[in-house]
Write a structure and sequence with these properties.
Elements lengths: L1 H27 L4 E4 L12 E4 L2 H31 L3 H29 L6 H24 L3 H6 L19 E3 L1 H6 L1 H7 L7 E4 H11 L4 H19 L5 E4 L9 H12 L2 E4 L2 H9 L4 E3 H8 L8 E5 L2 E2 L6 E4 L5 E5 L8 E12 L2 E8 H12 L1
Parallel strand pairs: 3-4, 3-6, 4-5, 6-7, 11-13
Antiparallel strand pairs: 1-2, 8-12, 9-10, 10-11, 12-13
Helix pairs in contact: 1-2, 3-4, 8-9
Length: 380
């Protein structure tokens, strides 16, 4: 039942628009053509003209035009809302005003063409030329106004108006594009909650799709990471002070998720928020600023001191013989020496050393029982 209701809501407006267009086309019958009629019996040399205006053809064209206008209007509204959310409200206003000016010039051109080439009879070629000129000038005015963000300010105030999305303007906030790794990492939530990270934060739909694919993975570790990421995203949306914008537009011509993020950041003039070492390097080479949470943690978080104790769940084998590997909640990799036998268990361990890189932190630990045994052996 819900599927049927959703289908009616999706198709219903188009059916109504098509019906109205068909009714208007059938009543006005604007489409027609001239054919020679039968010769007059009193004057056989005179062949009158006869207009053919099929009602069914006008109704069909009217239905198609009605549905097309509705689709274009919905797409325009959707694009306008996304532009406002992206901080492009001023550019949208400028585009609308210059589009209106373009329409006025288009109407003037319409009248000039009618004076020059009008014959008093319906002329399909002339009507298409007039409509094309009107649409072209309207679109041209909108594109000029939308692309020149400071045009309205320069015209009204004599100088460029400050853009709300410009970080150099008073109160401006630079948008950030969020990638999959930083959502799974989870520390973004604390940064936003405590006010150290301001929005707006853009979460592309292909990032959400990647999180869902990870959460549906057959591998247990990947599945837990994906579900953690979805939970973090849900909690971020509940925070009141930072807008989380789910960006629906896709960059279909770019296959890689990392390349999509870089392209989106360039389009939005945003920074990329990540913990991915490779994305960090590629984005900076491409001229996009990056906020790496691991670099922030490296700068602020004191290093683990050898001898500190922690509890870790060993979930996989390490690269070396006998090693086990686990992860802290912040994504830090913990290598447990002689920990392969503890796989699937939690173990109390003592830090022996740590290694911090731009790709993340690594801890090397030993099970507490082994360390105590070594101490007892050395003391004896």
């Amino acid at each position: 039942m819900e599927t049927v209701t959703r289908g009616i809501r999706r198709i219903g407006p188009y059916l109504i628009a098509s019906a109205l267009g068909a009714l208007l086309g059938a009543s006005q019958v604007p489409i027609g053509w001239v054919v020679p009629g039968d010769p007059l019996p009193t004057a056989p040399a005179v062949v009158p003209e006869e207009w053919i205006r099929p009602v069914w053809l006008n109704a069909l064209v009217g239905a198609i035009v009605g549905a097309s206008i509705l689709a274009a209007a919905r797409a325009a509204v959707r694009a306008a809302l996304q532009a406002v959310e992206a901080g492009k409200g001023v550019a949208l206003l400028q585009g609308s005003l210059l589009g209106l000016i373009g329409t006025l010039f288009g109407l003037l051109g319409y009248a000039v063409l009618e004076l020059l080439f009008g014959t008093g009879r319906p002329n399909l070629g002339l009507q298409l030329a007039q409509a094309g000129l009107l649409l072209f000038l309207t679109y041209l005015g909108f594109r000029i106004g939308y692309s020149q963000e400071d045009l309205l300010g320069a015209f009204v105030f004599g100088d460029a108006a400050p853009s709300p999305s410009d970080p150099s303007s008073p109160g401006g906030k630079t948008p950030k594009v969020v990638d999959t790794s930083v959502i799974i990492d989870g520390r973004i939530y604390d940064l936003v909650r405590t006010g150290f990270l301001e929005g707006p934060l853009y979460v592309p739909h292909f990032v959400v799709g990647e999180l869902q694919r990870i959460a549906d993975s057959q591998d247990g570790l990947r599945r837990r990471k994906g579900r953690r990421g979805l939970n973090i995203l849900e909690e971020l949306q509940k925070l009141p002070n930072t807008p989380i914008i789910l960006w629906e537009e896709d960059v279909s011509e770019v296959p890689s998720v990392d390349r999509k993020l870089i392209r989106l950041a360039k389009d939005l003039k945003a920074k990329i928020l990540t913990t991915d070492y490779n994305l960090n390097k590629v984005a900076r080479v491409s001229g996009v600023e990056v906020l790496n949470v691991n670099e922030l943690a490296k700068s602020l978080k004191p290093p683990f001191i050898p001898g500190e104790e922690l509890e870790i769940e060993v979930i996989d084998r390490g690269q070396e013989i006998g090693q086990g590997v686990g992860y802290l909640d912040d994504g830090t990799m913990v290598v447990v020496e002689n920990g392969r036998r503890y796989i699937g268990k939690k173990v109390r361990a003592v830090v022996s050393s740590s290694l911090q890189t731009d790709a993340g932190k690594m801890l090397f630990v030993r099970a507490k029982g082994e360390v105590d045994g070594q101490y007892q052996q050395s003391s004896s």
